[in-house]
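::Amino acid chain::
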Amino acid sequence: MYALWLIFQLLFCLALGFFLAKKIPTALKHIAFQVLPYFSYVLLIAIAMEFFQALQYMTNFTVILVPALTLAACTSIGAFLCCYVLFKALGYQNSSGRVSLALVFSSLLNMSYACLALILGFGLAYAAQYYNFSLDMNSWWLLLIFMLLIGLDLAYAPLDRSWLNWKILLVPLGCIVGSILGAYISYILLKQISFKEALLLSQGYGFYSMSGIVISELKGAELGSIALINDLFREIFAILLMYCLGWRYPRAAISSAGATAMDVTLPMVKQACGNDFIPHAMVSGFILSVLAPIAVSVLAAI
């Protein structure tokens, strides 16, 4: 019942933002859209502060890092290969394109911002502990606000009915199937997590600002820490695949990007894959962004 309550809260805030988007004053919408790109960093600071407390009780950080990296690699590559196989079976030809160094550096800079937010969160938590003062940031309430802002943003996403065809839907399908296969391979390679836990962690689809909090709420801080780092590295692997192979295998690269294809990695899709594949990224990212909190919450409750 608790998991259902969490799912309800997440979807309610997402839907509320979507339906209020056209009704709230323009000035308020402008503020929301200005805040949205930076709000995930606020969430990461709050998450890092909470995980700092959990790490005090852990003697070996590799307990978190090794499964997170293994899962990120297996699920990213799994999504890429599954989508490639699906479209290859349909007879689609490989594409071509080119990538500029300017966008590569820009994406690396964006990733560094996320890392800095985590470091800042750990630093604030350490300072609070060292100087013995209380400093609390409720990551769950911040996540609900974030979902509300995402709902506002989705209402203005340039989706078109013509994009919703079964061929484009194979991109998120490849991500889902590939993530499950990647979870199974990770389970075989790793000894410290069960298949159920690997499957749960695989369903974040790179949505790191959500998965870590939800899994922490339902399964504890250690698994939540693995979820956060897994999805952070999953985004990094997706960006690497986008730049290295996206120009040649655009649909597969978009599939590996998971939920981030609609926002963080969209500029890379535009350049590495071309404008013709923006609909694939928007539809796939939208579906996986909505599916991720539901799948994570349900699997965590089972």
Notes: Residues 26-55 form the longest helix (30 residues). The mean pLDDT is 81. The two ends are 11 Å apart (CA to CA). DSSP finds twelve helices and no strands in the chain.
